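Quick one, tokens below. Sequence please?
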């Protein structure tokens, strides 16, 4: 069993889906949770779940793509919680359409939230990680960042960017006792994939050797591992959680 007793984990996009599952999983292993989502009220359900597990939870509203909001949030978190041990950059969006129809706004929104948001939170917490000489950074990428996807040029570029950022941060901060890894989920049952039609879903299932879409908990288990002592010697890696879709 992983033991995260008395550690503080900051999770972005914690209000629902994969972020909520990660917050609950880390809390189940003993961590207290700083939950960040676009609006503070989006964090209410997650905070309730964390408290029901006997852990402390704090809620913050911030747009991860805005530097001032990120810096202010990190300042508040450090004041409220004293420290952060684990950062999970999970907030993300899609704005899918074919390249020829993709607007500059579709491109900018996805890159700003998925990639720049990960950069901003990582940068904002690096000083305190360096001071502590410890820290775990876990970035939620996607298999789409590894293999691309028609209709997702912006999303694929943002997630490939997250993978490059992960490896660079891992190299830059390794000597300070900080690890940085990415998880690349495949297709996971959340509101992000609820919009897929039955025909798309059937085609996807045919490409997944394990024969089912993933659950948010499948991704949260990988996050728990990367946050744990058992992953102390792992950095700069991309852990694919996709039922064998990409191998
Ligand atoms: P979701 O839409 O259910 O949840 C995303 C959360 O992020 C929401 O709570 C939302 O409010 C929050 N968020 C969105 N924009 C934000 C912003 N600007 N600032 C702060 N918070 C913001 O999605 P999910 O499926 O749980 O996805 C979580 C992460 O996992 C994303 O990075 C996504 O790209 C990645 N992912 C998901 C899948 C999948 O199949 N669901 C697959 C691969 C990767």
């Amino acid at each position: 069993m992983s033991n995260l007793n008395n550690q503080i984990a900051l999770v972005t996009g914690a209000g629902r889906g994969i972020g909520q599952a990660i917050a609950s999983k880390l809390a189940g292993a003993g961590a207290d949770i700083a939950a960040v989502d676009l609006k503070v009220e989006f964090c209410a359900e997650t905070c309730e779940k964390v408290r029901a597990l006997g852990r402390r939870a704090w809620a913050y509203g911030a747009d991860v793509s805005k530097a001032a909001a990120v810096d202010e949030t990190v300042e508040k978190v450090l004041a409220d919680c004293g420290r952060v041990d684990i950062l999970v950059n999970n907030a993300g969006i899609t704005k899918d359409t074919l390249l020829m129809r993709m607007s500059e706004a579709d491109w900018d929104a996805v890159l700003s939230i998925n990639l720049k948001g990960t950069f901003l939170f990582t940068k904002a917490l690096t000083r305190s990680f360096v001071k502590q000489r410890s820290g775990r950074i876990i970035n939620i990428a996607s298999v789409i960042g590894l293999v691309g996807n028609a209709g997702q040029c912006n999303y694929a570029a943002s997630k490939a960017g997250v993978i490059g950022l992960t490896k660079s941060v891992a190299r830059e901060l390794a000597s300070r006792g900080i690890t940085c890894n990415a998880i690349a989920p495949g297709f996971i049952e959340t509101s992000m994939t609820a919009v897929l039609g039955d025909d798309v879903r059937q085609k996807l299932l045919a490409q997944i050797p394990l024969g089912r879409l993933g659950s948010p908990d499948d991704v949260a288990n990988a996050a728990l591992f990367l946050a744990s002592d058992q992953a102390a010697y792992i950095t700069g890696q991309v852990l694919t959680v996709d039922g064998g879709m990409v191998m």
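Residues 9 and 47 are 13 Å apart (CA to CA). The radius of gyration is 17 Å.
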